[in-house]
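Sample 1 of the test manifest.
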Amino acid sequence: MTAAALELDHVDAAYGPFRALFDVSLRVDPGEAVALVGAHGAGKSTIARVASGLLPPTSGTIHVDGTDLTGRAPFHYARAGIAHAPEGRSTFASLTVTENLELAFRAARPKRDVAADMKEAFRLFPKLGERHDQLAGTLSGGEQRMLALARVLVLRPRLLVADELSLGLAPIVTAEVYRVLGQVRDTGTALLVVEQHLDHALAIADRVVVLQQGEVTFDGPPDRLGDLSSTVLLPDGSPSRAT
Amino acid sequence: MQLLEYAIRGVPTGCVFALLAVGLVLTYKTSGVFNLAFAGQAYVSAIVYYELRKELEWPLVAAGVVSILIVAPLIGLLLERVLFRYLRSAGSMAKLVTSLGLLIAIPEIAKLVFGSETRKNPPPLWWVRRTDEWLWPEGATFVLDAGQIATMASTLIVVVGLVVLFRFTNLGLRMRAVVESPRLAELSGVDSERVSMAAWMLSSVLAGLAGVLVAPLFASLNPFDLFTLLVAALAATVFGGLTSIPLTFLGGILLGVLQAVLAGTLPTDSVLTNGLRPSLPFVVLFLLLLFRPGLRSTRELADPLATVDAPPPPPVVRARPPWVATGARAFGTVAALIAFLVSWFVLDQYWLGLAISGLILSVTMMSLIVVVGMGGMLSLCQAALAAIGAFALAQVVQATGVPVVVGLVAGVLIAAAVGALLAVPVVRLDGVYLALATLAFALMFQSIFVPLSWVSGGAVPISVPRPVVGPLDLSDDRYFLVFVIVCATATALVVIRLREGTTGRFLQALQTSDVAAASIGINGPRARVVAFTIAAGIAGFGGGLTAIDLGQASYEASFPYLIGLVWVALLVSAGARSIQAAVMSGLFFFLFPALLDKLFALPGNWVESNPDAPSWVASIANAVQPTWAQSVAFILFGIGAITYAKHPEGSIEAQTTASINALVRRVEARNGDREQAPVGAGVGPGAGGSTP
């Protein structure tokens, strides 16, 4: 059996006194697309943060590609091939588009030809090419999301952790972002997609993991999710379709 | 032509400004800290260089390498590792207070290590004194000496080097990224710990270079001159918007040129010239802060991943059960009464005098409570406002012969008026900029107004008699103590009234969220102006009392701006919101160094009375010097301010809260037992009830 791209084993996590994850075990195989769904506050973003090393777990272990990285600094995760596009604004507002990209490209692979990477990034997202000299803080929300994605996608990571990509985006932009995600999966990158928008998540995923109040309550293929999908989204169990 | 010559003369001075200003910009750009302690770091390198060159007679290059390239970066590394790495996601205010504490502590630590004797004629970082003989032909209109050439060359190298670093290198890019969000940089695969360490080491090297280069400009080496020069250079820093290195360089040169041109063209011996020349940088800094477009609207870039941190602890619990409040009040009254009786019957003249000075300082400290604690404005000019109160009192009493108590009221009113005038433009500035503007005001006051005879009375301070109130002659220190206690209590009541009243609530709302406060109709600038004005009045009151206490209104003795910075550090670390902290820190400021003095004298006295003690014991005992007292006290004051980041509510307040909460829990647990409540119920409602 090959090593998992990412494996969380019995992970607990907390923000100060507030516990957010309870004994979560999760595995993403190379090339696999996993959707992580759940209501607000269920702990989805916490899992994303644990997966990229931003939040060290209080107990349990994290293996990336078979190597134990528990408690290491996040840049070790990045260098091991975990790319994390965090929720919300996740670009350096004080740097230009080009500088944002350059930072990631030169940190990841010092020997690589940055110019070629840059060209690839602007091919994936032509909009960014038009604005390459602009400060990232002046981009629109969708463009910032594209920049965050371009930064990680060009490097062909082993695993992309995408947190709430559709949040606050116009439907047409969301569609564009998911089109690129599909391309990424087809090139062999594993995906861990955190999403409230069920339709998008289910369309792209090989497997669905449902979180409720910090615990995994379902882990299986999307078609087995069945009617559960209408009941998992709110902590109190009231039915809700994400819009 | 004449003008051009003056302008060229100004370039070397401009380079000094530029070098310091660029160093500050570098630190700010790469660590987010507006590092006032830069002057302290510069001082350490200068002192090391001095000792190596003059005392140990090392060769120039070796001494330069050790002091600038080894000692300086080690200090930077130390600061980053033990302190600033924990402050990365702290607000700019916490960082500024920390650097203020370091500014006070670092030079004193250096003095403890290297000895506090005066160091005259700091050695230059170049070989020859003058170059005009071989560089310039006979009859040249002006010449540059070697020091000026060295400074200009170093400044140019530094500026070009830094521009290259930030424009073209990966390290520069990483430094800029890490300062905005260390976590986001890590997600891009950047080791932000290492980048941050490198940034601190680099900026510390620059501080060391500046310190060693600039030191020969002064007759003797001391941290105050370096800091004053640094504040002068701040004008260039602000000109560059705190981030642009080329603009900062240009600002420094312009400032030096402007100073030289003014010095050459203005008539000599006029009041304008004498006041304006030394104060020009501070005037420029003040005006730039008020009028430079863009500064007012600068928003700090928040770290988008800040939510990964644990949420901050809830604000200090103020809703306590009534019996606790009553008990605390009774306890406080009894303690104050005991302290008073001890002062009246037990203390001798020396200690009584110190206690009175401390209590008066606590009045001034209460002005800091209003402006810093309640208003959230880090004002660094309360000492100047106190001086205004003292001078006004002295002048009014001398000119009109009214009773001193009336003069005291006049001092309060005039200080408040000056405070209001200052507040109107200043309160619109954001955190760091407001601190800088008030610092500029303090230095403007010191260099323009203090020398004027209609302000301070000129070279000889105006004397202020102790008043006679009814049958009591206050020249008896014990009666004066009573008077001061009454004054301090009245001030405390004003502050409490303000804090619990509408303005206090407005200020609290504004501190929590400017936007939310504005959206419910609170006029932020107005509430801040009110707070600033009242604080200025209180500071004037404290200053007036100080003048009465000493019998004269003396700027040098009571109100130098650096002492004002120590007050801020001390109060903020004790607790910027509570009266208790103001009183404690005021008393502490005077009593603690005196106590240390006695303590450090003990070993020496013991050796004298035990002549047959073993020689090694005697030599250890004799090594302890009473002169350490001031240094140790200031180091502790400075280190206190560093703890601000951990306990923003202050150490005294934190301690009080912790012990009261423990007491409440214990009492409620016992009551719970008596009422046969289920286990834990006693704690539950207690904890719930005490949360706001």
